[in-house]
Amino acid sequence: MAQQSQMTSGPVDAEHISRCLDASDDFSFEMQVLHMLKTADLNAVTLTAAHGGTYIDPVTGLPRQFDIRAKLSRERDHSRRNCFLRLSIECKRLHPNAPLVISRSQRTAGESFHDYIRSHFTAGVRPQSGVSKATSSLSFYRQGEFVGRSVTLVKSGQNVPAGDADIYTKWAQALASVDDLIWEGAEDARGPAIPIAHSTVLPCLVIPDETLWTVDYDSEGNRSNPQPAENCEFYVGKPSAGRARPDKFTVTHLHIFTISGFQKFLLRKLADTEYWLGHFSND
What we know:
With 283 residues, the protein is α+β, with helices and mostly antiparallel strands.
């Protein structure tokens, strides 16, 4: 019988560290996403980004670290109303031999909306704010489109799904981080230069290319063939937590992108005037 090889123990050296990071370096992937965000040509959109900061989890009360937060703004010259979009971005380096598979069904009428915050400045008082629901014609999310409902990893060499434990923490952090950004939106109208502001938030999960697949189900449970994807909207319906203002804000969807899909979202969507301004009310 051949002698079984034994793992040797001892001090970790640079070669061992490099080998482990080559296998799974989440931070390197995070830096790639941040670089893409900061260097994207977004035309008239102003972008600021924060990397690796800490926030207090609104449910547990414990400190947690976010990967990336971004604030994008565009001014409406004719009304002096500014529009703000905040992204809570978590990054996870997956591998093509263990991709993320999203099971989807059609979005209902009750799920086809997004909330936004209206902030108004009046001299001598704090900005006043409230939450409004975008009408169906203004919403990011259309009735009848396929939307994610369930997440699992499928690993090479295994004949059953591996569950969502490896990915759940990341998308949960993207949702937890959103509450601070909602609160910030209540303060966007800050003076005569910005008397009226509308803002909303998008939690995002970014993963490498070739690691995202979708499977669609009809109302009777019939399943389509799995298809590779670059983006997928996932329904969550999460109310904001732990703040007195603005009230009743609901985060309806998590946006899941491959890194190529995220780049296209930045350049084709957020850099486009009509897309950007079309999702906020004129009131």
